[in-house]
Amino acid sequence: MSDLSQSPPSVLFPPAGVSTAQVRDFVEILKPRVMSLVVFTGFVGLVVAPGHLHPVLAAVAVLCIAVGAGAAGAINMWYDRDIDAMMRRTAARPLPTGRMMPGEALGFGVVLAVGSVLVMVLAVNWVAATLLILTIAFYVFVYTIWLKRRTPQNIVIGGAAGAFPPLIGWAAVTGNIGWGALALFAIIFFWTPPHFWALALYRAGDYAEAGVPMLPVVAGPRETKRQMLLYTLVLWPVSIAPTLLGVAGATYGVGAFALSVLFTVGAVRVWRDHGDRAARQMFGYSLLYLALIFSLLLVDHAGAGLAREGWL
User: Fold this and answer.
1) Which of 1, 64, 205, 292 could form a disulfide with 116 if both were Cys (CB 3.0 to 4.6 A apart)?
2) pTM of the model
3) Integer Cα distance of 215 and 200 in angstroms
4) Any residues with CB less than 8 A from the CB of 11 and at least 6 apart, and which?
5) Do 160 and 182 fall into the same domain?
6) Of 176, 192, 207, which residue constitutes the final position of a domain?
7) Residue 3 falls within a domain, yes or no?
8) What is the pLDDT of residues 215-257, one digit of tens each?
9) CA–CA separation, 263 vs 283, rounded Å?
């Protein structure tokens, strides 16, 4: 086995100003794991919206949502490359390691953002395109640049960016924003704080080192846990709002309520736990929670369609 300690510096680290970015690095700065959840919620908003959109245009709309989300992630990584280098969770990203030059990431993100909005307005409608550009701008300018480094409420306010995709999907079909779409927005909006604060609880040292005023750093673990619990309680009525508004049926309502109760149980366990285990588990469950909530919407919608056709 060769001794890497004897390798020339150019082998271990790229020379300053020289990009060694590969395709996987460009994929990584799109934040594919975040994108997958964004795309799924946008797709569900499109499916459950009243009306019909040609399957090809529906696919274009979902693709634009995905590309727009990736563009916002790339610009976020460009702006946050300094603090990403200070945190263990993000230090291996393409920009902090020097595999990718800042200009590459910024240019890549801007091109994708402009392209996704242009295609959306030309192929779908201007309402969906407006919401898409608002989502990208909100994530980049409001959350990343303005809020993230200034206030512990960064996730609360900035979380709205992640709640826009169902609105975009809904608008792609209807050309407007209905109460049902706002209910889907609200679910993600109120889910976001306990989801991210669970992560922040066991990554508080990283955030403190990077100077990011996440709630556990500024207000302490106890206050963070209290607010997490309150947000999960708010999700009880919010999660069943689609049923109350006629967007979904009783099957969804019962399932969503049960999932929200379990979310609160997780928050109670975090409240009682003096270590990191419960917070880690709650973070994992929070991802499952949102995926299952929106999956229930799809299942309920499919069941209602079969019932209308006389199959059920």
Assistant:
1) 64
2) 0.91
3) 8
4) 4
5) no
6) 176
7) no
8) 999 999 999 999 999 999 999 999 999 999 999 999 999 999 9
9) 10
